[in-house]
């Protein structure tokens, strides 16, 4: 059976459109970036990236697709590998499913402040982590951040581990986080980020945990009564580019993109940190806010001790090696 001519023409046009991306003399270069958030430091960082890139090279068109328009972070990772989407600033949860080394950024209370996080991610540890997906179709550019994760709920103030008991709690789709909150007595429920607001509104879950920026910009606090500033996990944001698309870009454009994303890490982190007081002010309109002490935080870490032991066995030598390197770098 012969293929209709219009089908062949359409297929040819699709191939041309795909292969032309990244080749300067073939017309405008399009960089298509997708990510899960629609506000906060990731989105602001991408808006600034768009401004800087297009100002430096008017032949480049950066197209942003925030708020999960292109799917979940895990789905967009697959799109980068397939060459469908170009760029993704992502949280580390979905990456752990591709390589255990990324779970090494997930243990609660591993990184205790921004100074420790900057030391780890801007040094050889961060560089090594960015490169682990080179054989999986992803080019690691740098680390941005999403801030420390905090806990909200509509049941009671959370001050001690016992306060989590029985709370239906939305967590990331990460076995490490699921097990940690189980150890605290919660009923952890993994859900995609895009489902959080409706799940809180319909009481599918009682609470959730995210950085202040996402709690505020996504108005999760509208459906919650209490926020505890637990600072339980530092949310790093590795920025990746599709290797398939990267290889199509001219060397000068590769350099511009890499340098711009890397230089922006300072601006992006500072912007998020500066906005935290504004976020807390917004959240206080609807929620009772509790700031936990270092002693409170240590109690949460102690309550999850069995999970750290489980993770060492589950994730193996690569995970343990990075954990040891992080501990040495943050002494």
In short:
The chain has helices spanning 5-20, 40-56, 73-82, 93-96, 114-121, 124-131, 175-183, 196-201, 212-217, 243-246, 251-274, 276-283, 294-303, 305-329; strands at 29-34, 60-65, 87-89, 138-153, 168-171, 187-190, 207-211, 226-229, 234-242, 288-291. The chain has 331 residues and is an alpha/beta fold.
Question: What does this molecule look like?
Answer:
This protein is of the alpha/beta class. The chain is built from 14 helices and ten strands. The strands form two sheets. Strands 3, 4, 5, 6, 7, 8, 9 and 10 form an eight-stranded mixed sheet that branches. The chain has a two-stranded parallel sheet with strand order 1-2. Helix 2 (40-56) runs antiparallel to helix 11 (251-274). The longest helix is centred in the C-terminal third of the chain and has 25 residues, at 305-329.
The largest β sheet comes out as: 8 strands, mixed
Low-confidence runs of at least 5 consecutive residues? 1-25
Radius of gyration: 21 Å
Count the E strands: 10
The structure class reads alpha/beta
Distance between the termini: 70 Å
**Share of helix among residues?**
40-55%
Which descriptor suits the 3D outline?
globular
- Number of helical segments? 14
Q: Report the portion of residues in β strands.
A: 15-25%
What's the order of the H and E elements?
A: HEHEHEHHHEEHEHEHEEHHHEHH
Provide the residue-averaged pLDDT. 91
């Amino acid at each position: 059976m012969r293929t209709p001519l219009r089908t062949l023409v359409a297929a040819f046009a699709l191939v041309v459109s795909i292969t032309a991306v990244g080749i300067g003399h073939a017309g405008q270069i399009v960089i298509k970036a997708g990510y899960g958030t629609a506000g906060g430091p990731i989105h602001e960082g991408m808006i600034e990236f768009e401004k800087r890139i297009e100002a430096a090279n008017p032949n480049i068109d950066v197209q942003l697709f925030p708020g999960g328009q292109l799917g979940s972070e895990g789905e967009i990772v697959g799109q980068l590998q397939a060459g469908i989407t170009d760029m993704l600033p992502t949280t580390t949860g979905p990456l752990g499913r591709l390589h255990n080394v990324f779970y090494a950024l997930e243990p609660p209370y591993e990184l205790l402040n921004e100074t420790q996080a900057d030391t780890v991610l801007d040094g050889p540890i961060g560089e090594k982590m960015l490169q682990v997906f080179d054989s999986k179709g992803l080019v690691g550019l740098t680390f941005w951040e999403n801030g420390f994760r905090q806990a909200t709920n509509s049941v009671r103030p959370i001050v001690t581990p016992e306060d989590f008991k029985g709370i239906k709690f939305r967590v990331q789709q990460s076995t490490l986080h699921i097990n940690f909150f189980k150890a605290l007595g919660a009923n952890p429920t993994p859900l995609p980020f895009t489902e959080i607001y409706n799940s809180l509104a319909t009481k599918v879950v009682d609470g959730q945990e995210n950085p202040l920026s996402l709690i505020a910009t996504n108005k999760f606090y509208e459906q919650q009564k209490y926020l505890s500033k637990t600072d339980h996990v530092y949310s790093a944001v590795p920025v990746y580019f599709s290797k398939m698309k990267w290889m199509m870009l001219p060397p000068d454009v590769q350099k511009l993109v890499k340098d711009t994303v890397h230089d922006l890490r300072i601006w992006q982190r500072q912007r998020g940190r500066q906005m935290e007081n504004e976020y807390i002010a917004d959240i206080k309109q609807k929620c009772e806010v509790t700031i936990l002490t270092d002693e409170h935080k240590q109690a949460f870490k102690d309550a999850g001790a069995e999970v750290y032991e489980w993770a060492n066995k589950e994730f193996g030598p690569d995970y343990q090696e990075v954990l040891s390197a992080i501990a040495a770098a943050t002494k």
